Every structure is written in structure tokens, then in C-alpha cells.
Amino acid sequence: MNTVVLVTGANSGIGLVLCERLLSQDLEGLQLCLACRSMRRAQAARSALLASHPAAQVALLQVDTSSISSVIAAAREVKLRYNRLDYLYLNAGIMPNPQFDVKAFFKGLFSSRIVSMFATGEGILTQKDGVTPDGLQDVFATNLFGHFLLIRELEPVLCHAGRTSRLIWTSSSNAHRSAFDLDDVQHRRGARPYSSSKYASDLLSLALNTRYNKQGLFSSVTCPGFVMTNLTYGILPSFPAVLWTLLMPVFWLIRMFTNTFTLTPYNGAEALLWLFKQKPESLDPQAKYHSFTSGLGNNYTLPRKVQEIIIIIISDCRRRPKSLRTWSA
């Protein structure tokens, strides 16, 4: 039987590399759908994939996860094309207008948290969020709510008796509990919307498993590690590209001491591909699956239990049950 895979944010970075790695598995009957905001970039990505895999079945889908109408229209199109969806990779995301705290950066260079600072951006990055035409915070809508709405709209092709389907999120090590507040899920009042949205996706994945596992739909979250992508380069938009290149030897050196510096989109996609091969019933819904790269350049995937997520769910269920019921409804 054919395997149908849809990847959001598939025209560049980790999303595009994931598609390339999936096609390289040489799976018979694989149907791949690139779900992208820009159809021009999507066409270029499709052409690149077909250049190396001319017999591949690669379709395109226009979707802007920051737009409610776009998500609903895309879901309607998916249901017309496919009678089932086996894998939905929730990969699209933005980190708009990052502000770099130079003072905190140089202070961190000479502290014990230098590796964590580089790997997660904690303490040195803030963002200025915008508002979508629908009145939602831009980062919240793009990274989280648009995907949540897409899942709900695609229930008829994701949930079928007698077979399993998968939701696989691209989360982040930047998903910090300190950035998230159930009383402000859109992060209107904070300066770390990216971190908040990624932490919320970790929470949401747990809630989705509670709701859908009995219907054969399983959700997992991944962390790609520290990867050099356009999102990373956007952290310092005025930073010349040549300086990023000069920093690479420093990053390789750091990787000798930490396995979180995956650096390339190919390495960062390791956990996404690893999950594709696993039986969902064998996975831990309370774990985040991390892409790791050793100092010698070997890629592997390991789960890390997110204990604080379990703690916050329990405590907030007791304190604010209505807010969680709203998200799981």
C-alpha cells in the first residue's frame, strides 16, 4: 500500500532535507506532499527533489499556517486528494525579528552555560512578535495554532480503524517552561514567543496522544539540535555570511564536548527520519526525540523525558482545568 507523507515548511532547511532523506529510503509507493506558503519556492524544492529522484511522487500544497482560511482550504484539498494520511510532519515555523543581547552574549562566553547558550539561545534572544489578519499572534499562529487547526480539519484522513497515523512535530531545545503561561498561551505579553510556542507544542503533543491514540493517531516531538538554517542566520541579520563561515570551526570544536551541535539540516533531520521508521506504540509520548551528532560526525537519536511538562500539566490541571479542556476539545 502507498504511504502518504505531508510535510509543512518543506521548501527549505530541515523540511526539505527530510523530504530528500525520505525519498532516499527508496520506499515503494511513497507519496510525498510538500506543504509550503510560497508556491514558487515549493516548485523549486520539488524540481530539486525530482532531479535526484526522477521517479518520485512529489505533490505540492499551498498552505500558510499563520492564516486560518489558508489552513482550512489546504485541509479541504488534502481530503479531496487522499483518502488517508500516514504521516503529518508539523515542521513549519518562524522566529521573527530576533533581538540579540550582545552584553548577555559576551557574559555567557565566559560562563559555565556557554554550550547551553549556543544550543538554545537562552538568555541572549528576544523577539518582537506581530499580529495576523485573523487577530492572532504571528508566532503562535504559525508555529502552533495553524498546525493544531490542520490536525483537527484532517481528522477524517488521519483517524481510521485498523491502522495508525503519525503526527511528528519539529520542536526545539529552546522550548523553555519559563517562557510559557497558560493564562497567555499566545504570548502577547512576553518577549520570547518562539520559545513559548515550542513549549506549547510539547504540551499539545501530549494532549493529542490522550485524545487520539485510541483512534490510531500518535503524536511525537523532536528537537533538531543547533542547526545552521535561515532561521539561525536571521538571529543576526546584519552579521555577514562570511563571519558565520569563520565561526564554523568553533562550532565543530564545541561539538567535541556536546552532541547537540548537529549544525547541518541533514544532521538535524535525523530524529524526524528515525521516527518515520518506528512503530508508534513503542514510543514514549512523554519524551522528546533529539537529533544528536557526535564529535566524529555520527548521527543518532535519543529520547529525553520532559519531566517538567508532566509536572506543569498536573499542577495546571488542578489549578485551571478549564484552560486545558479548551485545548484538548
From TrEMBL:
Lineage: Eukaryota, Metazoa, Chordata, Craniata, Vertebrata
Any one Gene Ontology BP term: cholesterol biosynthetic process
Keywords: Endoplasmic reticulum, Glycoprotein, Lipid biosynthesis, Lipid metabolism, Membrane, NAD, NADP, Oxidoreductase, Steroid biosynthesis, Transmembrane, Transmembrane helix
Annotated transmembrane regions: 231-254
Keyword Flavoprotein: no
Protein name: 3-keto-steroid reductase/17-beta-hydroxysteroid dehydrogenase 7
Subunit structure: Binds to the short form of prolactin receptor.
GO cellular component: endoplasmic reticulum membrane
Oxidoreductase keyword on record: yes
Pathway: Steroid biosynthesis; zymosterol biosynthesis; zymosterol from lanosterol: step 5/6; Steroid biosynthesis; estrogen biosynthesis
Catalytic activity entry: a 3beta-hydroxysteroid + NADP(+) = a 3-oxosteroid + NADPH + H(+); 4alpha-methyl-5alpha-cholest-7-en-3beta-ol + NADP(+) = 4alpha-methyl-5alpha-cholest-7-en-3-one + NADPH + H(+); 3-dehydro-4alpha-methylzymosterol + NADPH + H(+) = 4alpha-methylzymosterol + NADP(+); 4alpha-methyl-5alpha-cholest-8-en-3-one + NADPH + H(+) = 4alpha-methyl-5alpha-cholest-8-en-3beta-ol + NADP(+)
Organism this protein belongs to: Cyclopterus lumpus (Lumpsucker)
